[in-house]
Automatic annotation (TrEMBL):
Family the UniProt entry places it in: Belongs to the glycosyl hydrolase 43 family.
Protein name: Family 43 glycosylhydrolase
Gene3D superfamilies on file: Glycosyl hydrolase domain, family 43 (2.115.10.20)
GO molecular function terms listed in the Swiss-Prot or TrEMBL record: hydrolase activity, hydrolyzing O-glycosyl compounds
Active site residues of this protein: 32 (proton acceptor), 204 (proton donor)
Keyword Aminoacyl-tRNA synthetase: no
Site feature: Important for catalytic activity, responsible for pKa modulation of the active site Glu and correct orientation of both the proton donor and substrate: 158
């Protein structure tokens, strides 16, 4: 513990990207935060929004990694992975999620597939949370099969990975329809059929976490989006809807979030439009502390500039 405090102090002194309140990074547009608490540091993974000021669509080619031990001073680790990490992908470094298993870091991310219509999900692996990452299987783990009536080009997006206490890993994802599949122990293959989950007004950005024995399934609902959640007794439900924890942004219609615990506190990362010239395709990652009520429900979380 002492060692990690010392490492924290040294890295803060060398921090390349200092933070003075939300949004977290003032020099770049950063969207779709994914986060991991590991060895005393929080690692934050964001897609880089590169659209022009009046751009009409996302322009996202790479993910950026930052880390912090105090949630205030952030060190930039550059871009250890991008669309080209996946040889079978052609564009769109959209939302991602990360987990650690057996000393390796598995990064699940949305990209547009080069030969199969629509978006797909890839998995990259690294020995370090800051990368470099390489494609873990050489092909997408999830592709758009267009077999359901509800299938659209972008329904296979926004992966969320969760490893339960019994070691079973799950991958959640989806747009309009929430889906999940069990993962094999190797983390790079699906194990069994794809299931769907019915939650109210689901749009996208599923997230799953566990706190004090309760499972929390959260997602972006409606459009413009707000963050809602359900709780349940297992990683697959049954789910009880609990309400909205974060309200819509002023301009940008998406709000993609991630929830982690770090050094005994809980945090929610999300994105907003608060950087000057920010907006729909020029978003900024932000963070708030998240508090649980004694009955396990989550307190409503106001967006702040702190
Ligand atoms: O960044 C592209 C898409 O916008 C993400 O995949 C969604 O969650 C939304 O934030």
């Amino acid at each position: 513990f002492k060692k990690s405090l010392l490492a924290c102090a040294i890295s803060m002194a060398a921090a390349a990207a200092a933070h003075a309140g939300n949004p977290l990074f003032k020099d770049k547009f950063t969207a779709d935060p994914a986060a991991l608490s590991d060895n005393g540091r929080v690692y934050l993974y964001v897609g880089r929004d590169e659209a022009e000021e009046n751009g009409k669509d996302y322009l996202m080619k790479e993910w950026l990694v930052y880390s912090s031990c105090d949630m205030k001073n952030w060190k930039a680790h550059g871009s250890p992975l991008n669309v080209q990490t996946f040889a079978w992908a052609k564009k769109d470094a959209w939302a991602a999620d990360i987990t650690k298993r057996d000393g390796k870091y598995y990064f699940y991310s949305t990209v547009a597939h080069a030969t199969i219509p629509g978006k797909a999900i890839g998995v990259a692996v690294s020995d370090s949370p800051a990368g470099p990452f390489k494609d873990a299987r050489g092909s997408a783990i999830i592709t758009n099969d267009m077999t359901r009536e509800t299938d659209i080009g972008w329904d296979d997006i926004d992966p969320a990975v969760f490893i339960d206490d019994d070691g079973q890993a799950y991958l959640y994802w989806g747009n309009q329809v929430m889906k999940y599949v069990k993962l094999k122990r190797n983390m790079i293959e699906a194990d069994g059929p794809i299931h769907t989950v019915a939650v109210p007004h689901f749009t996208e950005a599923t997230y799953l976490h566990k706190h004090k024995g309760t499972y929390y399934l959260s997602w972006s609902r409606e459009f413009p989006e707000e963050t809602a959640y359900s709780t349940g007794p297992s990683a697959t439900g049954p789910w009880t809807y609990r309400g909205v924890i974060m309200k819509k942004n002023a301009v940008v219609k998406t709000i993609h979030h991630a929830i982690i615990e770090h050094n005994g506190k809980s945090y929610i990362f999300y994105h907003n439009d608060k950087l000057p010239t920010g907006g729909e395709f020029r978003r900024s990652a932000a963070v708030e502390e998240l508090h649980y009520n004694p009955d396990g429900t989550i307190r409503f979380i106001p967006q702040t500039d702190e």
